[in-house]
Structures are given as C-alpha cells and as structure tokens.
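Lab meeting minutes (informal)
Scribe: AK
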Amino acid sequence: MTRTLSTAELAQYIDATALKAETSEADVRRLVAEARQAGVKSVCVNPRWVPLVSAELAGSDVLTCTVIGFPLGANASEVKAFEARQAIEAGAHEVDMVIDVAAARAGDRARLVEDVRAVAEAAHAAGPAGQGGALLKVIVETALLDDDAIVLACEAAVEAGADFVKTSTGFSTAGATVEHVALMRRTVGEHVGVKASGGVRTREDALAMIEAGATRIGASSALAILGTD
C-alpha cells in the first residue's frame, strides 16, 4: 500500500534538478526560488552553477547538490575526485557521481570500488563550513545494466563508502523503475539511501518509488509532483 505523506513530508524526499546543457542562469534562479518556497531537500545543478545556488540558498534549509562525471561516468577517477572537491569547496553539500558503467557491465568489481572510493574519499574529507563532509550518491545507470550488474554496482558502491545509490542520470535510454528501486533497496539494506531519478513526474510516480524503497527522488518537475505549480 502506498505511503500517505503530506506535501511538506514529500518535499523532503525531493532533489529539484536542472541538469540540461541549455540550462540558463535565469532557469537556475527560478528553480532556486521555487525550491525554497516548496521546501524540497536540495537543488541539484551542474557544477558551473554551484556557487550561484549555494549563495542563493544561504539561510535556508535547502541543500546544494551537484553531479560528478555526468552524464557518462567515463572520466578518470582522479578527474571525478577533483571535480567533487572543487564543487564542495564552492558550496555543494551533496554530490551525485556516475559510475564507470563499462566496468559494471564487464563485472569488474575492483574497478568500480576504486572509482567510487576516489570520490567518496574526496567528498567525505571536506565539506562546506560547519559540515563534516559532503554526502555521496552513486548513479549506477540502471537502464544500461542487467540485474546482476545493478547488484554488483550497488555492492561496490557501498563497499567504497557511498551514502546513497541512485538509479539514473535521466539522460540515458530510460529512467527509474519501481523494480530497480526495489532491487537496489534489497541489495544495500536499510542503512544506505536509494535515490530514484529519471522519469519521476507525478506525485503517484514519487509515492510508488518511495513505497519500493527510495529515500530520495530526483526530479525536474518537483512542483508538479508536489502540486504547487
């Protein structure tokens, strides 16, 4: 049975996103204003916009989130770690990294752990003033993996120090599914977060993902989900 959540409670599950290449400063400012009004968990933007978002959200409870190695995950691990450190220094509280998808498809657990650990160490070593490190979410890009590879990627992410595993970038062949969220929740247990992202457009979509085990929702249509648009 789908959980009953108030709009304010549901808002605390949501990372409001603006990650398209064409996202403008005006788009970012508008998203920040809407996010503050709605009381979502975070605003997630490309690294270029982190300083602006961090400044605009100052004094609010809404966190600044960014993406690393996005959207392909094909960067060298050292580059991902540098990108994470730079974003955190600029004010990011949370970073969502993309795994080495090819390694997951090849069953290369050691490579997956190495890649995630590089970013986890960078993220957890330092955070914005007053925060003992940034939270790391690991995007496994479920649309490109079979179930065995999803399990492998999630296990490797947890071993490497991830705080969350996340379904999708929203820029691949498909987004989150209830089945994949449930599989990821079973794999990581109760002490690691699961973020559903990609194709979550309505309140019903969000509630179904939460019922399946998601503890965070990434959405470019946050206001529509919350019924405040």
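Next up, CB showed the second protein from the same session:
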Amino acid sequence: MTATTEEKYKLLVEQARALIEGEDDWIANTANLSALLFNSLNDVNFAGVYRYENDELILGPFQGMPACVHIQMGKGVCGTAAQAKTTQIVKDVHEFAGHIACDSASNSEIVVPIFNQGKLWGVFDFDSTKLLSV
C-alpha cells in the first residue's frame, strides 16, 4: 500500500522531531533539518536556513548548490519573507520581481520565517526545479 501525501508529511514531521528532540544547538538542528528535507522532498534543489543578524540574512546550514551568503531585508524571496514576517510561496521565481538567482535551476521557492520568542530569528528556504501548482 502506498502512503498518501498527508501520511508522508506526518512521517516527515515525526522524523524532524526525533532529530531535534533534546538538542539545543541551532547549527546541528538546522543542518539535520536541511538534510532531512532536501533528501525527503521531491524536486527540491535547495533546503537551508538564513539567520537574521545585523538587519540582514546570513547563510546557515543548507543542502544544495553553493548559495548567496548575504541577503538584504526586502530583497529576493528570502528578504521579502523576513521583512514581511510571512511565508512566501512563489510558483515561478522568474516572475518574482527582484528574485535572487543563486541556482539557475530553481523555478519555484517557498520561504518560511522562523521566530524565537516572538522575534524574527531567520528563514527556512526551499527551492525546487519544478514550477509549483499550488
């Protein structure tokens, strides 16, 4: 029997919890989560974290091709998500004004802000080679 998409995502959440449970080190946790998501989600060519520091985003642990190290607030999908403090779902990055193309193979992107005690901590960035049909 093949698992449904919902079942696959529930398993992924369980795996993520098991990886970070009891571990306080942000580098270890974000590195493991990046690896888990990169290797578990279809067509993802980048999964990683940008940490918010000194009014910019700085590259943290990731999986994929080499990436941009510094992203200014409000620039690209990551900077837009961080500044607006909202998830950005971009079905076609080529239509996103100001898209930062770290990997030319990327066609869609999802960026989720991360908060710690109510304050912006960073963003989780996912790029895909496929156009989204959400």
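CB comment: The chain has one domain: 5-128.
No objections, moving on.
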